[in-house]
UniProtKB/TrEMBL annotation:
SUPFAM superfamilies: HlyD-like secretion proteins (SSF111369)
PANTHER family: MULTIDRUG RESISTANCE PROTEIN MDTA
Record GO terms (molecular function): efflux transmembrane transporter activity
Family: Belongs to the membrane fusion protein (MFP) (TC 8.A.1) family.
Pfam families reported in the protein's UniProt record: BSH_RND
GO CC field: efflux pump complex
Name of the protein this chain belongs to: Efflux RND transporter periplasmic adaptor subunit
Domain Multidrug resistance protein MdtA-like barrel-sandwich hybrid: 65-177
Length: 364
């Protein structure tokens, strides 16, 4: 009987001890919970801004004929690669060729009249030397030679103009490019300045983005930036090359162009991307900007939690600037500090924390 009682008592103690150990392990697991930690990596006065934009070709042109006429042939199609000097389209040259023939005939007539005037001048010069005619007749002959010579020059210039017009009935590629679009078709009438096709060079790209008016003053020529787009594993370096000085009338944004030191592969004009630029904000000098979740607010008092090894320590801070995206604080917080990122209202001074998931908090 006593032996059975001892066995029962020993079993109950063992169960109680096991339950106590499990409860202790449970409490410890609750205390050592994993947390998210941010590390202050850079001066918060340097802010990172991103803007959407698109790649554009630096060599683009909308080709048009310089003379009116009827399109007889278009030798290329959209998407076709062309080389400099390649014939792209033609107008009906008949009317211009007829005009060339007419002016060439007039030029022959004018040269003949000029030659006759010179012969008449020589004859009158001999007669004048023998006092056979009045001097005024010789003066008239000289004037006739000058007028006929001027007439020849005028017709020669007219002939050159008509020859140029005849040459303008053919449209050639001004540089190696891709035919992005063809606006006209054969047998259509066209006028000078009306685009017939659009050419762009796919191997010479730049990136263009629209910048808000408030950010325009922070940009300068040569400023570095980083480009990212879907499917790209690494960012692409870029530099500010052009900046408009007047805003868009509708969007009130400024257009910035970024040059690319290296041309990206498999990227065509029109592809969308994002450009990231670091801008210095003097109003944030000496401040550390943090996400809202990293700052515990209690009325006018604010504090953050530093992490020393695996324990948290509260630090009182001042909040001179706050907006919808961040809280900028001043105090005993500096570059390299590790701060609790979330859950600051649910920890206590000196609490031990578990596994840490670290994020670098820099220019945002």
């Amino acid at each position: 009987m006593n032996t059975a009682l001892r066995i029962i008592t020993l079993g109950m103690c063992t169960l109680n001890l096991s339950a106590c150990m499990e409860q202790q392990d449970l409490n410890q697991s609750k205390t050592l919970r994993p947390v998210s930690v941010i590390e202050i990596d850079s001066n918060s006065s340097i802010q990172r801004h991103e803007y959407s934009g698109e790649f554009r070709s630096t060599d683009v042109t909308r080709l048009s004929f310089r003379v009116p006429g009827t399109i007889t042939d278009i030798h290329v199609q959209s998407g076709e690669e062309v080389v400099e000097g390649q014939l792209l389209a033609e107008l009906d040259p008949h009317d211009y060729q007829v005009l060339v023939n007419e002016i060439e005939a007039r030029l022959i007539e004018a040269k003949s009249s000029h030659q006759l005037a010179k012969v008449e001048q020589k004859r009158l010069q001999k007669a004048n030397a023998n006092n056979a005619i009045a001097a005024v007749n010789l003066d008239r002959a000289k004037s006739a030679v000058a007028r006929s010579a001027a007439g020849v020059q005028v017709i020669e210039q007219n002939l050159q103009k008509t020859l140029d017009a005849l040459a303008y009935t053919k449209l050639y590629a001004p540089f190696d490019a891709t035919v992005a679009d063809v606006y006209s078709e054969s047998f259509e009438q066209t006028l000078p300045g009306v685009p017939v096709m659009f050419l762009q060079a796919n191997d010479s790209l730049e990136f263009v983005a629209q910048i808000p008016e408030a950010h325009r003053q922070h940009f300068e020529h040569g400023q570095s930036a980083k480009l990212t787009w879907f499917g790209q594993s690494q960012s692409q370096s870029a530099h500010v090359s052009e900046m408009t000085s007047s805003p868009d009338l509708l969007k009130q944004t400024y257009e910035l162009s970024f040059s690319l030191p290296e041309q990206p592969e498999s990227v065509l004009p029109g592809k969308m991307a994002r450009v990231a630029v670091e801008i210095e904000n003097s109003s944030l000098a000496g401040l550390v900007c943090l996400p809202h979740s990293a700052v515990s607010m209690n009325g006018d008092q604010a504090k953050v939690y530093k992490i020393d090894v695996n324990k948290v320590r509260s630090v009182m801070v001042e909040v001179p600037l706050i907006d919808s995206h961040k809280i900028c604080v001043s105090g005993d917080v500096e570059q390299g500090d590790r701060l609790l990122a979330v859950g600051v209202d649910f920890v206590v001074e000196g609490q031990t924390i578990g596994q840490q998931q670290r994020y670098v908090w820099g220019a945002q």
